[in-house]
Write a structure and sequence with these properties.
Distance between the termini: 32 Å
Shape: globular
Number of strands: 0
Helix content: 55-70%
Number of helices: 6
Structural class: mainly alpha
Amino acid sequence: MTSLSNNRSQETATGHPPQNDWRLERLIDRLPPRAGAAVRFLRQPSSRWLRIPAGLLLILGGVLSFLPILGIWMLAFGFALLAEDLPLLKSWRLRILDWVECRHPGWLNSGSHPHNRT
């Protein structure tokens, strides 16, 4: 719980949340290696013009989740990508990460990598 309060104190001290939230980095670490590399590439500031259309397309795919290949996960992932550029979505992402930290701390363990192939 102390890391939660530390994160919030960083947010209020600077007026905006820290750029690289450790919780988001830990969740990205849990992705398969190729997916994690793609997400890290899309989160770079220089990838903004690729990130915004990708986020919008993922949201559209999530809305069409009743189709066989598409899924509701696309909706969440699209919003997470757009949160890099939209302050309202960024605050929602912080709230969701706070919830994950409180309710599912095992998801943030550095030792739990479900797709670690070593």
